[in-house]
Amino acid sequence: MVRAAVLPAVNAPLEIAEIQLPDPGPGQIRVKLAAAGVCHSDLSLSNGTLKQPVPAVLGHEGAGTVTAVGDGVTGLAPGDPVVLNWAPSCGDCHFCGLGEVWLCANSAAAAAKPYATRAGGGELYPGLGTAVFAEETVVAAHAALPLPEGVPLTEAALLGCAVLTGWGAVHNSARVRKGESVVVFGVGGVGLATLQAARIAGAGPIIAVDVSPAKEGLARAAGATDFLVAADTESFQKEGAKAIRKLTGGIGADVALECVGRADTIRTAWSSTRRGGRTTVVGVGGQDQQVTFSALELFYFGRTLSGCVYGNSDPAKDLPVIAEHVRSGALDLSGLVTERIGLEGIPAAFDAMLAGKGGRALIVF
To answer: What is the value of pTM for the model shown?
Structure first.
């Protein structure tokens, strides 16, 4: 038996419970978690914004040590440190064939199959296929990436979502070039990773925008050269783009990265870029968040608006590159973490997200 945070139903409180994990089957491994990040996507899964069969053990950003392997597993053995990949590519679908593994048609298959049981009975589903809000988990071997040497195992949990997403948004989706001006909306865990990635890319100026003035220190430590407070969302929607243009020589940012997932923020991000500018939407919004543009402005400004799934990353290729920056000190994983908690602290971490407080809460086992 292992302890886990169980979501019994959509919008129900999490329950700390004992669960029973099976031995790893063919092609599977068992992992003892060292740490797991609390991501906004977990909150979206818990409240139904994102679909997830329940009851479930949520959590998809984690790292740990392999304790057992099933038949047919090669390349991983007990004792190996790994980062879990919540969107492993199948290698066979149309999108994988195009090399767009972040769009894999089968990456979510594991989340729809029960993987464990509660003490006393009752099947449980793994949140986003990984279920890292637990002391241990069982996943497909291809959902685990060997952890590069020199990266601390606890902080490595952040590589599994926040860092791959933020890094990929900058380097794969927006393709930020040295000297380009960048504005990042939302200074949570992903936003902080995005700011660091923009700094490593040589961008400048780098403007951070958030509703909380308390996040200015975090943003500047991550690489922001300027910080704007969007305390009044309606007012900032009207004046924010002007303020950003003022900080970018009067023309607007070359690149805007929206890490919130709100219609008004997406619209402001798009409006804050120059003619021909690029806006990448990193945040996950609900179906009710509708963004509107006029046909004339689409023509006149010539801007690009694009979505971004998991940073448009191929984790197997991007993780070693990111690890080099971690080892060199250019990328500070601990700079994303504002709180270290146990499983019992997840509800409070969700509340902090809703209130726009802090960066990444990290569950340490």
So the answer is: 0.93
Which residues partner with 279 through β-bridges?
Answer: 256, 305
Q: What is the mean pLDDT of residues 98-126?
A: 92
Proportion of the chain above pLDDT 90, given as a percent: 84
Strand 116-118 to 253-258 pairing: unpaired
Cα separation, 95 vs 40, whole angstroms = 26
Among candidate residues 60, 257, 98, the one with its CA nearest the CA of residue 173:
257
pLDDT at 233: 66
| Rounded CA separation 87/202 (Å) | 29
Task: Give how far the C-alpha of residue 189 lies from the chain's centroid of Cα atoms, to the nearest Å.
Answer: 7
**Neighbouring residues of 38: CB distance < 8 A, sequence distance ≥ 6:** 59, 61, 341, 346, 349, 350, 353, 360, 361, 362, 363
Tell me the average pLDDT of the chain: 93
d(CA 274, CA 188): 25
